[in-house]
Amino acid sequence: MQSEPQAFDRVLSSMCTEPHPVARDAAERFLATNPGDPGTYPSVSALEEEAIAMLGSIAGLEEPTGYIASGGTEANIQAVRIARDRAESQRPNVVMPESAHFSFQKAADILGVELRIVPTDDNFRADLEAVRASVDEATALVIGVAGTTEYGRVDPIPELGEIARSVGAMLHVDAAWGGFVLPFTDYEWNFEHAPVDTMAIDPHKMGQAAVPAGGLLARSDDLLNELAVDTPYLESTSQATLTGTRSGAGVASAVAAMEELWPEGYKRQYVRSQNNAKWLADALEKRGYDVVDPTLPLVAADVPRSTFDALRAKGWRISRTATGELRIVCMPHVTREMLASFIGDLDRLEVRASVPVASDD
Ligand SMILES: *Cc1c(COP(=O)(O)O)cnc(C)c1O
């Protein structure tokens, strides 16, 4: 095989990043292990318990239970599955803001629950009145996002918890991306702040672990046990994961990254990323673009389609929000120099265009 993976020096659109060196090393060492078979691969199973303990301390959960999943998608599907299986209604529904990740569409499809999608407010957070109007006796789960994929917004989690409890529903928090930056902010997002039942929190995003390393956390064993099935041909007696054979590389690299970086390393990274996001937002604003205020290290700005396409043609890996804004995620590999070079390219394009390019939407 001749192929090489892409370099990260022009990647501005990814929610993943280069693994930390210790995470890369751990991933390589544990490549040939399978935590899905703990009777055969005991050392990686022990590491998985450490991973869950550390995720618990990051997310304010004293006696954490959960597992290292393939990613936020699996964690979200499993959270919906727990809620559906505990629901008394024959036609359970799940209520979430329109800002929630598309993985919940997959969950609803697979699990046969009704998805009720409510609007967000002017600040891109779940509209609480709309959530209140949507829940009923058949609501099994209310979902809040702590760090939305498009604008990095944090839903009002304690209020969503109150609404969920008022109809006997569970509360799931999707912190797949935000979980490793939110501990250094004033947001109320975790198990200590609200009656959170389950959470998605991914080491393979801001946690700097190798892919695949997602995290599912549950408030108590009985919630996780909803997922357990018997495993006749394995020494262990039951399995709660969606996948069977799993990556021990993901588990080991998650532990290595968290041991190395929690909390000080992650805190430094958050400060660096947030400063970069503010710098970029400021640079875009000065050039006359409408920018969505980066409350977490994620910047969205209204850049004309033609400019966007020209930047892509220059090799910048950038993406757009559903409404067409340029979206840049200030992940750990994104440096100030990269952003300055990106703005430099943008300026050269604008000079060439000589007259301001009108937005084509
Ligand atoms: C990335 C992301 C997901 C999906 O996680 P994968 O690891 O890609 O499966 C879910 N929710 C949020 C908020 C995300 O940012």
Automatic annotation (TrEMBL):
It comes from the Archaea. Pathway: Cofactor biosynthesis; coenzyme A biosynthesis. Belongs to the group II decarboxylase family. Sphingosine-1-phosphate lyase subfamily. Belongs to the group II decarboxylase family. MfnA subfamily. Signal peptide: none annotated. The gene is mfnA. This is Probable L-aspartate decarboxylase. The lineage of its organism: Archaea, Methanobacteriati, Methanobacteriota, Stenosarchaea group, Halobacteria. Its cofactor is pyridoxal 5'-phosphate. Catalyzes the decarboxylation of L-aspartate to produce beta-alanine. GO terms for biological process: carboxylic acid metabolic process; coenzyme A biosynthetic process. The modification N6-(pyridoxal phosphate)lysine is found at residue 205. One of its GO terms (molecular function) is pyridoxal phosphate binding. It holds the Pfam family Pyridoxal_deC. It catalyses: L-aspartate + H(+) = beta-alanine + CO2. It is an enzyme of class 4 (lyase). Keywords: Decarboxylase, Lyase, Pyridoxal phosphate. InterPro entries: GrpII_AminoAcid_Decarb, MfnA, PyrdxlP-dep_de-COase, PyrdxlP-dep_Trfase, PyrdxlP-dep_Trfase_major, PyrdxlP-dep_Trfase_small. Its EC number is 4.1.1.11. Gene3D superfamilies: Aspartate Aminotransferase, domain 1 (3.90.1150.10), Type I PLP-dependent aspartate aminotransferase-like (Major domain) (3.40.640.10). PANTHER family: PTHR42735, SPHINGOSINE-1-PHOSPHATE LYASE 1.
